[in-house]
Amino acid sequence: MAKLGYARVAAGSDALEEQVDALKEFGCKKIFTDDKTTKNTYKDGLNAMLEYAREGDIVVVLKLDRLARSIQELQQIIDDLKVREIDIVSITQNINTTTDHGNDIYSWIDIFADFERELHSERIKLGIENAREKGVKLGRNEASRSMKEKAFEMYQSEEHTMREIVEETGLSRATIYRYIERKKGTE
Questions:
Q1: Which residues contact 134 (CB under 8 A, 6 or more apart)?
Q2: Which of 56, 142, 154, 160 is the most buried (most CB within 10 A)?
Q3: CB atoms within 10 A of CB 166
Q4: Residue 24: phi, psi to the nearest 5?
Q5: Interatomic CA distance for residues 37 and 65, integer angstroms
Q6: Could you tell me if 62 and 40 are in contact, meaning their C-beta atoms sit under 8 angstroms apart?
Q7: 8-34 pLDDT, tens digit each
Q8: Distances in whole angstroms, Cα of residue 149 to Cα of each of 14, 48, 120, 176
């Protein structure tokens, strides 16, 4: 069993050393970090830590928000660790999944992730409804009839390749072929 520390900071923050010191004080022998001021992405250290962790290990963070940027991402990480029988400790939030009380965090994370998904879905539906009420046309703009006609004429002339027609009109192949079929059906 090993205590694996993980620390993450955003660009311009000097809190990385503070997190690392707290992780060392807690007994972490191996510490993984992500610092946006370096060339790594914010997940390089996290991914390395998750790959390194073994059954029976304990992942230690200062706060759970160091592990993830959303509740859904946190849920995925925690679920993965739980399946692999790796525990989590959040020092400042007094969360420790090696205890019965700490194991309740798994249930709460699932509940909050579902809640966040439902809120997000409701906001999207409300936004669409508000846009429609304001007369906003949703979806992709229909290709202009004049460009479709131009594509059809170029196609019928048999002087242009489909690639040339696409480049000239800016329409997709699918749009052009649909329009051609529609035109042929009305003739």
A1: none
A2: 154
A3: 17
A4: -65, -45
A5: 19
A6: no
A7: 987 656 688 899 999 999 999 999 998
A8: 61, 55, 41, 9
Question: For 116-142, what is each residue's pLDDT tens digit?
Answer: 888 989 999 999 999 989 988 887 667
d(CA 75, CA 105): 10
The answer to whether residues 3 and 58 touch, using CB atoms and an 8 Å cutoff, is: yes
Give 42's strand partners.
Answer: none
Residues with Cβ within 8 Å of 102's Cβ and at least 6 positions away in sequence, in order, are 87, 89, 95, 96
Query: 57-90, pLDDT tens digit by residue?
Result: 999 999 988 888 888 888 899 889 999 999 999 9
The model's pTM is: 0.62
* 3-state SS string for the chain: CCEEEEEEECCCCCCHHHHHHHHHHHCCCEEEEEECCCCCCCCHHHHHHHHHCCCCCEEEECCHHHCCCCHHHHHHHHHHHHHCCCEEEECCCCEECCCHHHHHHHHHHHHHHHHHHHHHHHHHHHHHHHHHHCCCCCCCCCCCHHHHHHHHHHHHHCCCCHHHHHHHHCCCHHHHHHHHHHHHHHC
